[in-house]
Structures are given as C-alpha cells and as structure tokens.
From TrEMBL:
Residues 100-320 form the Smf/DprA SLOG domain. Belongs to the DprA/Smf family. This is DNA-protecting protein DprA. GO terms for biological process: DNA-mediated transformation. SUPFAM superfamilies: MCP/YpsA-like. It holds the Pfam family DNA_processg_A.
Length: 395
C-alpha cells in the first residue's frame, strides 16, 4: 500500500480540507474527484471527509478507487468505489440546469457549514462532500440571511395561517426561507415565499433531478426557477429513511435559525430544531391550541427548554437576526495572526480563491476559511463570483 495506507493516513487536527497548489489546469481533475466521491459515499461520511482533509481530494479519490486505504476506511467506500461516472454526472447536471458546488467554489457556503465542520460528527452529522444545486442564485448569497421554517406534514388551518403570516413578514423584510419541500408546513412556507417574490431554498433527501414527494414536482420546479433546490445526494439517488435525518442538519446549517410550526410528539421538524441547537443556532417554536395534537411537539420543546416560544416574525428576527454590534475597525491593524497572513496574501487588485490563499499564506485551508469571515466582518475584504478581494477604504 503506497498511497494513504494505515501508516500514512492521519486524521487532521481541524475539520476542513488541506492546502495544496491550485491552478486552472487541475480544477477539472479536482471537480471530477469531488463528484466521484459524492457518488461513492452518497451523503455525509466523516471518514472520507477526514481522508480528504489529510491528503487532498484528488489523492483521496485515487485511494478510494484503488482501495488503497486503511482497513477502517474501506467499509464506507467498498460498495460503490467501482462506480466512476463523474463526467457523465456533470454532463447530465448541465443538461437539466443543475450544477455541483464544492469547497473549491466561491458559492460554497463555508461560513454556514463551519458549525458542521466543528462537530464531533456521526453518520448523519459530517460535512457534506459536495452539494448539487438547481437554480439561478449563488448558494452562499441566497443563505446569507435565511430562516428555516419546518413543521408537520398534515397541518391544520391554524398551521397554514400562522405559516403564511410569519413567512410573509419574513420575506417582506428580505429573509430567505429554507425548508424541505415536504407536504404540509414545508410546502406552505415555500409557496408563500414564491407568491411574494421572495427567495426560498428547498433541501432534498434525494437527487435534485428526482423531486420528492412526487406530487411536489411542480413546486420544486418553481423553486428552481427563482430560488434554489439543494441536495448532497448525486443525481438519480432515491430517498432512504436515514437521508431525511441527514437532510435536516443541512436545513438547519443553511439558516440563521429554525422555526417549527406544528409538530407531533415524534416529528422530523423537532429533529431539525435539535440540529439547530447543536450548531449553536436558535431553535424556535410557535405554540398552537392546547386542544389539538398537531402542536404537542412544539409545546413539549418549549416546556423542556428545547426551543424558545415565538409568535410572529419580529420575535424570530430578534432571536435569529444579526447582532447589533459596534462598527468594526476597518484598519489593517485590527487583525493579527492567521487573519493578518490571509489578508497579506490577497493582492491589491483582483480576487483569490481560498485554496490560492492557503498556498500564498502558508497556512492550512481550514484556517484560511475560518479567517475569511473574520476579515469580512472587519470590513477589510469582500467576496464575489471570482473569489475574495480587498475592500478599499478612503481615497
């Protein structure tokens, strides 16, 4: 075993992916590697994420393909390692108006997913390897100010009314609505956002080319026209029971907070709120009539301290909205350590991708990704479709 065998593989000290040289020449190879591994693991896989962080995505793909792995890593990849249809997947995605978004891309929601990267992740909790996306917007931009609204599949009139009012007010104030495109509260949240011309993101538990539930085919197509449809599962992958629990963590991670409208005693929406708490995000619940079973889950979450009680959009924004902090110091002297190294690596003009900054600064890619939001908040840098760039202040 000459590649990443048991003697050479070491799990990284911090979550993320290692720095290495990047050029236009190797970008296609890297993208094919991400797509291949996405097909092999089909969902979150902490072991493969750790492998990528240790040796890089291209070498990880080679090691998986050739089974050049420590014994502990083989079970996660053995079943589908021989399926290499990455080029075909990319062609099909382009044909249906979809794309794959990887940690190499500017629209990768690095700041949003940072919480997952720092969790002691189990089967459903790891960072996504890649995200498959349908829709015109940038994933990172669409989720910059976002609230997840989830709830019971078999809602009543009260749940529909409350969801419509809350979502309508959130959309009016510029918030993106994130949900799972399921029957009931999820579907209502998406439809209200669409009807008001707002932004909405549907996170699926199967490939973005296979709408689920099938009866929401038209709804999901409408979301893809103006919002985003997102999944970590490659094209053609059907939904399995454990996919929905894994999907819930992405709904939470792509949002500033999770709002539950109607939930039974055993509810997937409650699981989404649990993920919000694990990620350090607000978990919120709207109470319902005490005479109905539809809100038993919400009442229990509130009673047991799992969620804070909210009744209107203003309450939600107060809990999940941006902190009211003093104006940031926009002078270069305001940063030090890794932030200063990353800032110094940015050219006076032009943009750079995180991997290029890791090479130029000499620090690991996870530390680069952690430093970039700090510099952005300090008002020193910004991000666009080409990457990160300096912001000029003064004349």
């Amino acid at each position: 075993m000459s590649g990443v065998g048991a003697a050479s593989f070491e799990a990284p000290g911090a979550a993320g992916y290692p720095a290495c040289g990047s050029s236009v020449a190797d970008s296609d190879e890297r993208r094919l590697a991400w797509v291949y591994l996405s097909r092999v693991v089909q969902g979150p896989c902490a072991a493969v994420s750790a492998l990528i962080a240790s040796v890089g995505v291209v070498e990880a793909a080679r090691a998986v393909r050739e089974s050049d792995l420590p014994e502990s890593l083989r079970p996660a990849t053995q079943q589908r390692r021989g399926i290499d249809r990455a080029a075909r997947d990319l062609e099909l995605a382009e044909r249906i108006g979809a794309r794959v978004v990887t940690p190499d891309d500017a629209e990768w929601p690095a700041w949003r997913l940072l919480g997952l990267a720092r969790l002691d992740a189990g089967r459903e909790g790891a960072m996504p390897l890649a995200l498959w996306v349908r829709g015109p917007g940038s994933l990172s931009a669409c989720t910059e100010r976002a609230i997840a609204v989830v709830g019971r599949r078999y809602n009543d009139d009260y749940g529909a009314q409350v969801t419509g009012e809350v979502v309508g007010d959130l959309v009016a104030q510029g918030w993106t609505i994130v949900s799972g495109a399921a029957f009931g509260i999820d579907g209502i949240a998406h439809r209200v956002a669409l009807s008001l011309g707002g932004s909405t993101v549907a996170v699926l538990a199967r490939g973005v080319d296979r709408p689920y539930p099938a009866a929401h085919d038209r709804l999901i197509a409408q979301i893809a026209e103006s919002g985003l449809v997102v999944s970590e599962y490659p094209l053609g992958v059907p939904a399995h029971k454990h996919h929905f629990l894994a999907r819930n963590r992405l709904i939470a991670a792509l949002s500033d907070g999770v709002v539950v409208v109607e939930a039974g005693s055993r509810s997937g929406a409650r699981n989404t709120a649990k993920w919000a708490r694990r990620l350090g995000l607000p978990a919120l619940a709207i109470p319902g009539p005490v005479t109905t079973a539809n809100s038993v889950g919400c009442h229990r979450m509130i009673r047991e301290g799992e969620a804070r009680l909210v009744t209107r959009a203003e309450d939600i924004i107060e809990e999940a909205g941006p902190l009211r902090l003093s104006q940031p110091d926009t002078t270069e002297s305001a940063v030090s350590g890794n932030e200063a190294l990353v800032f110094d690596a940015l050219p006076r003009t032009g943009s750079r991708q995180p991997r290029e900054l890791a090479t130029a600064s000499g620090i690991a890619l996870p530390e680069v990704r952690a430093a970039l939001p700090v510099l952005e908040f300090a008002g020193l840098i910004g991000v666009d479709e080409n990457g990160w760039h300096r912001i000029r202040h003064g004349p």
